[in-house]
Structures are given as C-alpha cells and as structure tokens.
Amino acid sequence: MKQNKTNNKFVYLISPNKIKKESFYNNLALVLSSRKVSFFQLRLKKETNSNKLIIGKKIKKICNKYKVKFLINDDPFLAKKLNADGCHLGQKDMDLISARKILKNKIIGVTCHNSINLAKRAIEAGADYLAFGAFYATKTKAVKHRSSLTILKSIKKITSLPIIAIGGIKLSNYKKLLLNKANFLAISGYIWNNKKYKPLEAIKKLK
User: Fold this and answer.
1) What is the pTM of this model?
2) Dist. CA 27–CA 148, nearest whole Å
3) Tens of pLDDT, residues 62-73
4) How many alpha carbons lie under 13 Å from residue 187 in its C-beta half-sphere?
5) Distance (Å, rounded) from C-alpha 54 to C-alpha 189?
6) Distances in Å between the alpha carbon of 70 and those of 49, 94, 121?
C-alpha cells in the first residue's frame, strides 16, 4: 500500500449508510473524477448480502475506472467475492490474522480508535494501515471513542504505516489533520449529506 508522496489524493471516501438511488453512482463517478480520492470504502450496515453484492459490483467498476482502491467494511468474505482491493476491520470484526487467510495479500486496515496499544497489536498482526478517530463530532455513526492530535503525533513516532483520521472531518477542520501528518482523511457525511454543496463541489473545496 503506497502513499502518494505529494498526497493530492488524501481522501479515504466512505459510502453513505444507505445507497438507494441511481443518482448515487453518477455522483460517485463525479467525486472520483476529482482525483482526490485514494480509497473508497463500502459501508452498508443494514443491507442484505445479496444487495451488497449488486451495489459492490457497480461501485467496483467506477473505482476501477478512476484507479481508486475499493475496500469493503467489516466483511472479508464479501471483499473476496467482489475481488475488492481489500477490507477494513473494526475491533469487533474478524481478527486480522483470520482475515489475512481469506484475503491473502490484499489491503487490510484496522480501526484503532484512540489506542496506541490497539495500534501496536494491529502492526504486529500485519495491518496495512491504521485508522484513528473520531477526531470531531459526527452524525455518521455513534461516537464512543475520541482521538486527538496528540495521539496522531504519538503513533507517527512508532510506525511508518499510513494513518487514516476519521470522524466529523469537513472543510473547516481537515487541514489541521493533514498538517499533523495524517496520511488520509476518512470522509463521508461532508460529501454525501452536505446541505450546502453537492458531492462534487464539496470534494473540490478540499485542496
């Protein structure tokens, strides 16, 4: 998993919680055409597996077109079925070593919340990236753990793995995380539920 050295592609885009309208796919293509997105994560907690497969196949084509890595949240088996680029694991999901047996050399990232210990465990198990958050208040999911710039600085001292910051990231706060060496910013609500800007306009504001 290589980082873009100039890192213009610093966005790790997460899907909205529901994908019901065909217009989503057009918006996704527009957002990815901005060339600011390195990863797209499909995160549908309340969808059936059969629908996830249908949606995933459509998204994968769009991601391939724009050379964006396509990841699946929580489910290594679905990631394998879709031949996705990898999978993201939360602390309550399958453990990384088991997931690695399924996905072999694909990308596997791990949620570390605000814990250096969880990060060290993920590093030892062979994670490809580490995700920390929530850094800011967010409506996308319930926040049980708050991370900080102090934790971000601490983790950068012990690993060269890419660090992904997550949680409430938007136009007014994203630069602070980049300045503190977060490699990628996980963004969802700012793009998909923005009352002020359409998805393409929203991502273009992030420079």
Assistant:
1) 0.95
2) 32
3) 999 999 999 999
4) 28
5) 23
6) 17, 19, 25
